[in-house]
Design a protein that fits this description.
The chain is of the alpha/beta class. It has three domains: about 120 residues, Immunoglobulins (Immunoglobulin-like); about 190 residues, Immunoglobulin-like, CATH 2.60.40; about 350 residues, Alpha-Beta Barrel (TIM Barrel). The chain is about 15% helix and about 30% strand. It contains nine helices and 45 strands. The strands form eleven sheets. The chain has an eight-stranded parallel barrel with strand order 33-34-37-39-40-41-42-45, surrounded by four helices. Strands 2, 3, 6, 7, 8 and 10 form a six-stranded antiparallel sheet that branches. A hairpin with a 2-residue loop joins strand 12 and strand 13. The chain is globular.
Length: about 850
């Protein structure tokens, strides 16, 4: 971030100088449509090609092709986008269901590929659960052969028996398990847990190539065959050697029409080169703000020094945007994708960008003036829609709320497209109000003539410059020194959030919060077979969580981890649809154990103060478990013993405080006895304070006091544990009713309004109804010393919004909590 800030400062300085000379920055961002014919430097010599090996690919498909169809093997480019720059090859038929092809690859290559049927349309292969195969992996260690089996196609359902691979990935030097290693086999992918354990479910019969891949390259790849027998488990143990990290210096000559002082980035296939390994918007995988920025040299070239794993297969390109927009191209318009097998001793790589442009169309300049009330810490992003919205790209600051972006490519693929502006890469949420929503955008068509669009954003969606100060005089009681004042982050994740962590944590700290609750997640990807694991790009990696922890602790914030589960539908619907027989429950407890131990280990490694287990989605899995309709969840009779054993195991991995999250309101009888073995209660408060449309404040406060005295205190007295009140109220009319109507007779959970969301005319934003609900609860706990902490839930980290969600970021409640927290902690008397 510091390097990027230095770059942005150069932009502002350069444009300011040119503005004085030419009365505007237009001169510095020329519309010249003709690509440069020469560089100021001679083109570096073409490097010698790496040694190559021939790989024989053979595949069995589930049924003969239809008339007019061919079978393709598609080699994928994850830097540009999996579907955006494939290299497709027609396979030869051995018979109606067996096909083959032999192709050469550089030694040490990691090949990413999948199969597709090509007829009038293309149909990708899918896994046995009918989800699309992202890609298969193959490591080219020498001449070899691959025997694959396609489970099914996207236009048909799989029918048949399956098996599974389970195993452990181990550091060959230390014998310890390795977390977050990508394991691929049979078109399936997963990550290893904190002990290195993994499971690949739903594999068709046959021998599959099992490949392990370190996302940052710090461990060498591994490959072996694994035989699958239907209904059986195939166990494996994989030992990986650490890679040797070497210094590689990239130096590049860029075209003469490169905009002065703008960030030139290195986009690549490793985590540290901006690859998320996930399916992001528009089919992208890379995140611009996570790509390293090159440093301009005095002679006009750009350079960067990076530690990379020796022998690793690096696919990369240079870009002024991401892997698709404004990336380098070949003179014929094709995308450029470079390959480097990192030399054992490192070294210097001399590169030459032929052109940023593609096709005959001229570059397009987008300049926008943002509203004066745009937060000073925000940046403005631009998002393009050629076939669907793609990943946002940060614009270049000109100062004084003016931002600019010059788009060069890929115009050879485009005629008409749309664009829109947003704050902090949060397009679809923190939008220009004129183009808010998922479908709207400003239109533009490519042209051989230069184009310069000057736009003005009149207002931002969900940002109305409301004051967040709180001026009332309250007699706030000073609490004990150990009292916790905190903020819990919204339980969602995007790789685009990283640049806004520091600003958000500073805002949280400025409220006098002394704790932040992080909410990392895993996702239930399948009910049967049960698959509970991180989804790359949607659930954070351990390294990303560690970075969050370090930034928070750098601001003297205590950190709690409250791991969450994500579901393909609501959790209540998911539980109802699950098999919930004895075998399924055995698997569920195994998977939850991996989840809990993963975060216990992560908390311990990062010296986190608190781990919070449980949550409102857990009720069917707790003793006496019931579904939302009141029916039994068929929980095993030894569930209490299982939970007790799991808590004991968590204690072995984590020596800090362990709390249990209890939803409130809720049945006291459903509170698990396992709390007796833990350190405290984290009470998830989304409690109705009124049933009236227009209650008085005193009515709200009286009901909060009644709930605390008649119901909550009983929980604290029963278990004799510290109790933290974790509160959520959305910013809507009737917030204190704690009921978000589904349009019928049911109340939705407060998280249904979390961003991103679809605007609803039936829900009215009311920032002060949220403030009243919070104030009623704060005044109710003021003299109740048995409450040991207060936390605001649902904080939306990347942008301040005055929306209907429960997030307090940028709302009056933020000022309210600052007032109370400073006095609770004795900072202000």
């Amino acid at each position: 971030m510091e390097k990027e800030q230095r770059i942005l400062k150069r932009i502002i300085i350069a444009c300011s100088i040119i503005f004085l000379m030419l009365a505007g920055c237009q001169g510095s961002i020329s519309n010249g449509s003709t690509p440069p014919t020469s560089h100021a430097f001679p083109k570096p010599p073409t490097p010698k090609p790496d040694p190559r090996a021939e790989i024989f690919f053979a595949v069995t498909i589930p049924a003969p092709l239809q008339s007019g169809e061919t079978l393709l093997i598609s080699f994928l480019d994850e830097v540009t986008g999996l579907a955006l720059n494939p290299s497709n090859h027609v396979m030869q038929a051995g018979d109606t269901t067996h096909y083959y092809i032999a192709l050469p690859f550089a030694l040490n290559s990691i090949v990413k590929y999948r199969f597709l049927r090509q007829g009038r349309t293309s149909v990708n292969e899918v896994r046995t659960d009918n989800s699309e195969v992202r890609y298969r992996l193959y490591y080219v260690g020498g001449p070899g052969e691959v025997m694959d089996t396609v489970a099914s196609w996207g236009d048909s359902a799989f029918s048949g028996s399956t098996g599974r691979i389970t195993g452990r990935v181990i550091n060959n030097q230390t014998g310890s398990g390795l977390p977050d290693i990508l394991v691929s086999g049979g078109g399936n992918q997963t990550l290893s847990d904190s002990n290195g354990e993994f499971s690949l479910e739903g594999l068709v019969e046959g021998t599959h190539d099992l490949v392990t891949y370190s996302l940052d390259g710090r461990y060498e790849p591994y490959q072996q065959g694994a035989k699958i027998i239907p209904g059986k488990r195939t166990p494996v143990e994989i030992r990986l050697d650490p890679s040797t990290m070497v210094n590689v210096v990239f130096t590049v000559i860029v075209p003469e029409n490169t905009v002065p002082s703008v960030p030139v980035r290195l986009a690549g296939n490793l985590l540290q080169l901006g690859n998320s390994f996930g399916n992001l918007e528009g089919g992208m995988s890379t995140v611009p703000v996570k790509m390293p920025v090159l440093t301009p040299m005095l002679d006009g070239r750009f350079t960067i020094s990076i530690m990379l794993p020796a022998g690793a297969d690096i696919r990369y390109k240079y870009t002024l945007g991401d892997g698709f927009w404004n990336a380098e191209h070949q003179p014929d318009g094709d995308f450029t994708l470079r390959q480097l097998i990192v030399p054992e001793s490192g070294g210097t790589i001399q590169d030459y960008v032929e052109t940023w442009q593609s096709g005959p169309s001229a570059p397009i300049i987008f300049e926008v003036t943002a509203p004066a009330d745009t937060p000073a810490t925000d940046s403005v992003s631009i998002q393009f829609n050629p076939y669907g919205w793609t990943q946002p790209i940060q614009m270049w600051s000109l100062g004084n709320n003016r931002w600019v972006y010059k788009l060069f490519s890929p115009f050879n693929l485009l005629g008409y497209f749309e664009y829109r502006y947003c704050r902090n890469d949060q397009c679809g949420v923190a939008d220009d109000a004129a183009t808010s929503g998922r479908a709207k955008g400003r239109s533009v068509s490519t042209s051989k003539k230069p184009q310069y669009f000057k736009d003005v954003i009149k207002t931002w969606n969900w940002l109305n410059n409301e004051s967040i100060s709180f001026s009332s005089q309250e007699n706030v009681v000073n609490r004990d020194p150990g009292f916790l004042t905190g903020v819990e982050l919204q339980s969602s994740f995007s790789p685009t959030w990283e640049p806004w962590l520091s600003s958000a944590f500073q805002d949280i700290r400025s409220m006098a919060s002394n704790m932040v609750v992080l909410t990392p997640s895993w996702t239930y990807q399948s009910e049967f077979p049960l698959v509970f694991a991180p989804v790359l790009g949607k659930d954070p990696l351990g390294s990303e969580i560690s970075d969050e922890i370090k930034q928070a602790e750098g601001l003297n914030l205590k950190v709690a981890l409250f791991p969450q589960a994500h579901f393909p539908q609501t959790s209540a619907e998911w539980w109802v649809d699950s098999p919930r027989d004895s075998t399924w429950w055995d698997t569920w407890f195994e998977e939850y154990r991996s989840f809990a131990i993963y975060y216990s280990d992560l908390a311990m490694e990062n010296n986190v103060q608190m781990l919070i287990l449980g949550g409102d989605w857990m009720k069917p899995a707790l003793p006496g478990g019931v579904l939302t309709d009141g029916s039994s969840s068929n929980l095993p009779v030894n569930a209490e013993t299982r939970w007790s054993g799991l808590v004991a195991e968590v204690r072995q991995h984590f020596s800090g405080q362990v709390y249990w999250a209890v939803p409130f309101p809720g049945d006291l009888a459903s509170v698990p006895g396992v709390i007796n073995e833990l350190d405290g209660i984290y009470l998830l408060w989304f409690a109705p304070l009124t049933s009236l449309e227009s209650p008085t404040f005193n009515q709200l406060q009286s009901e909060a006091e009644r709930l605390l005295d008649n119901e909550v205190e009983a929980i604290q007295v029963t278990f004799k544990k510290p109790l933290i009140l974790a509160v959520a109220y959305p910013s809507i009319t009737g917030s204190g009713k704690a009921c978000i109507s589904d349009g019928g007779n049911r109340c939705l959970d407060w998280t249904s309004l979390s961003q991103p969301q679809t605007n609803s005319d039936s829900i009215k934003v009311d920032l002060y109804a949220q403030q009243d609900a919070y104030l009623a609860v704060l005044k109710a706990i003021n003299t109740r010393s048995w409450i040991t902490g207060f936390v605001s839930r649902g904080y939306y980290l990347p942008a301040a919004l005055q929306d209907s969600s429960a997030s307090i970021h940028g709302k009056p409640v933020e000022g309210l909590l600052q007032y109370w927290y400073t006095r609770m902690l004795g900072i202000i008397n």
